[in-house]
Amino acid sequence: MVNISAIQPTNNGLLTLSKPQNTARSSSFESMLNQYIDQANLSVKDFENKSLSLAKGETVNLHDVTIAAQKASIAVQLTTHVRDKAVEAYQEMMRMQV
Question: Could you read off the pLDDT of 42-57 as tens digits, one per residue?
Answer without folding.
Answer: 999 999 999 999 999 9
